[in-house]
Amino acid sequence: MLKGKKTSGLPGFGLTLGLSMMYMSLLVLIPLFSLILYSVRLSPGEYWQIITNDRVLAAFRVSFSSALFAALIDGFFGFIIAWVLTRYSFYGKRVIDALIDLPFAIPTAVAGITLSYLFTANSRLGRFLMDHEIEIGLTNAGIVIALTFIGLPFVVRTVQPVLQDFDKELEEASASLGANFYKTFLRVILPSIAPALITGFAMAFARGLGEYGSVIFIATNMPYESEIVPRLIVQKLLNFDYKGASAIGTAMLACAFTLLLIINLLQHRLQRRII
User: Fold this and answer.
1) Is residue 20 situated within a structural domain?
2) What does the pLDDT look like over 251-272, one tens digit per residue?
3) Higher pLDDT, 168 or 154
4) How many domains does one find in the chain?
5) In angstroms, rounded to a whole number, what is the distance separating the alpha carbons of residues 196 and 190?
6) The dihedral of CA 189, 193, 198, 201: what is its sign?
7) How far apart are CA 275 and CA 270, in angstroms?
8) Exposure string (b/e) for 80-119, b if CB count within 10 Å is 16 or more?
9) 146 and 115 Cβ atoms separated by less than 8 Å
10) What is the pTM of this model?
11) Domain span including residue 114
């Protein structure tokens, strides 16, 4: 072996790295670069005029606010569900654990139709809510509910393994030092699971930004009110406005990537503090 030549501790590193990069390029990088290259055909003035249109800005506002609220709800209740499934034993636990993955299995259009039926006047629950002047179906609140439904498994399945592997001796040590449950939770448990919780939040948020199938059935899809960015892009594609669709798509890509990068940096900083 030549001196000074560094070798990896794992065999096959070059081959696996090459296959990984090829896979990423074919399925992720090349389609994204194709979208960017198509939007480059627009002049800066045309691009700016498209993405600053009032209808486009309203759609961005609806998409980002709805995805954010849904991800926050998923983060809170997803953590509670993961905690219950990890820390307690009860009848029907495996059934509930299996139901968590249901949004992964069913088509989003089916979820949208079901939620639309459930929260409108067609069902007893919808009539009950409307009798008490609570409107969810065909409103922006319905969009948040649809995004919450599809995003919940991301949080639960991200936090659950971390809670299962958490060293309970740390809790016992904290209790032996006189800390009650709430202080132990805030100072010992929560910092340890915070990176996983942030990851689940980011995944639910990203999934909500790109969701289309479930939202169009539970929202009115009215421009300036409840129209989301994916529907606006589809509408432009149906009208053969490929330049407009590519411009909005790249703007959405840039905003989502920036937010996810910030979240990942925050997660990395929390992990370094824990280590």
Assistant:
1) no
2) 988 888 888 888 878 777 776 7
3) 154
4) 1
5) 10
6) negative
7) 9
8) ebbbebeeeeeeeeeeeeeebeebeeeebeebbebbbbbb
9) yes
10) 0.84
11) 35-274
Euclidean distance between CA atoms 169 and 89, whole angstroms: 20
The whole-number pLDDT of residue 1 equals: 44
Q: How confident is the model at residue 76 (pLDDT cuts 50, 70, 90)?
A: very high
17: in domain:
no
Q: Whose CA is closest to 111, among 158, 152, 68, 157?
A: 152
Q: What amino acid is encoded at 228 in this protein?
A: I
Both structure tokens of 89: 């034993």
- What Rg, from alpha-carbon coordinates, does the chain have? 23
Q: Residue 216 domain-assigned?
A: yes
Residue type, 198: I
* Residues sharing a CB contact under 8 Å with residue 164, sequence separation 6 or more, in sequence order: 86
Contact by Cβ (8 Å): 208, 150 = yes
- 27 found inside a domain: no
Separation between Cα atoms, residue 39 and residue 49, nearest integer Å: 13
Residue 157, classed as helix, strand or coil, is helix
How much helix, strand and coil, in percent to the nearest 5, is found in the chain? 75, 0, 25
Q: Are 181 and 87 in contact (CB under 8 A)?
A: no
Q: Which helix (H) or strand (E) holds 154?
A: helix 140-165
Q: How far is CA 228 from the centre of its chain?
A: 15
Rounded CA separation 31/158 (Å): 27
Sign of CA dihedral 209, 268, 158, 79: negative
Write out the two tokens for 255: 């905003």
Residue 242 burial (CB count, 10 A): 13
How far apart (Å, rounded) are the C-alpha atoms in residues 208 and 199?
14
CATH number, position 209: 1.10.3720.10
Contact (CB, 8 A) for 51 and 248: yes
